[in-house]
Amino acid sequence: MPEYEQVHSLNETLVIQDSLTTPIEPFDGDYCEITNRILIVSPRPASLRTLVAELAKRCYDVLLLHHADDPLLSMVQGTIIIMDRTGEVQAQPALNKLPNDGVSRILALMHNESSAPLNGEEWVKWPCPIEQIIAKIQLLALKNPAVSDELRTLTFKKISLDPGRMIVTHDGTRVDLTKTEFDLLKAIITAKGNVLSRQELMTAVWGEQYFGGSNAVDVHIRSLRRKLDDDPKVPRYIATVRGAGYRLADQ
């Protein structure tokens, strides 16, 4: 299984796969209570530092990828994606890697109109005044349809889980979870108190083709409880049902 690490974006902490992103220094400005997510794909991200800094100032969480065929593109939904097409030689992106969720919007950066954008893409000539591209991004954000139920934030007691941005907070403090821990917590909260067997949890997290032992679930649940400061003897969040599996603890 791939390892996951905590990567700091400009204003949030995301749980994302190791080596898939370029970390950015946090913007030293006012605290952003509400943030928006934006993803930039560029083989030369240093050339976009001015744009990245301005987006951070305006409370955007910016995720940088170097390559258009990165598998993370198909995983991050409900996002505005900026594709840097200003290079003299740049391969067309792998279309099957782009989100097909009906929510994500794509904005292409181009040197001139001769480089025709792909179908469904908005575009802007780059470089351009920063206010011009910010206005374009804000317009795209307004065009985004309502977030689907799968991307809505889940809450239980003091836990808040954002499926779209893969962010978990506990009592207002961000919690660093692995992808497996995140998926386990999401499955348990989504079950709304119903008991989930270890097999059901394994299927939810690793798929039907996973043939590992059920004790793997117990190991990850133990780690998840520790990070949530949840005592298994007097559980506030995750309760063990002996001989059956796990469920949300009683309200």
The SSE order reads EEEHEEEEHEEEEHEHHEE
**Beta-strand share of residues:** 15-25%
- Spatial gap, N to C terminus: 34 Å
How many domain modules? 2
What CATH first level of the largest domain would be assigned?
Alpha Beta
Radius of gyration: 20 Å
Shape descriptor reads elongated
Overall mean pLDDT stands at 75
Let me know the CATH homologous superfamily of the largest domain. Answer: Response regulator
Which topology of the largest domain does CATH recognise?
Rossmann fold
Strand line-up in the sheet with most strands: 4-3-5-6-7
Model regions low in confidence, pLDDT < 50 over at least 5 residues: 1-29, 89-96
**Second CATH tier, the architecture of the largest domain:** 3-Layer(aba) Sandwich
| Helix content range | 10-25%
Structure description:
The protein has two domains: 4-148, Rossmann fold (3-Layer(aba) Sandwich), CATH 3.40.50; 153-248, Winged helix-like DNA-binding domain superfamily/Winged helix DNA-binding domain (Arc Repressor Mutant, subunit A, Orthogonal Bundle). It is built from five helices and 14 strands. The chain has helices spanning 49-57, 130-143, 179-190, 198-206, 215-227; strands spanning 4-8, 13-17, 36-41, 60-65, 80-84, 105-110, 122-125, 154-156, 159-162, 167-170, 173-175, 196-197, 238-241, 245-248.
Structural descriptors:
251 residues, alpha/beta, Rossmann fold, Arc Repressor Mutant, subunit A, 2 domains, four-stranded antiparallel beta sheet, 24% strand, disordered N terminus
Describe the protein's topology.
Layout: E1 4-8, E2 13-17, E3 36-41, H1 49-57, E4 60-65, E5 80-84, E6 105-110, E7 122-125, H2 130-143, E8 154-156, E9 159-162, E10 167-170, E11 173-175, H3 179-190, E12 196-197, H4 198-206, H5 215-227, E13 238-241, E14 245-248
Parallel strand pairs: 3-4, 3-5, 5-6, 6-7
Antiparallel strand pairs: 1-2, 8-9, 9-10, 10-11, 12-14, 13-14
Helix pairs in contact: 3-4, 3-5
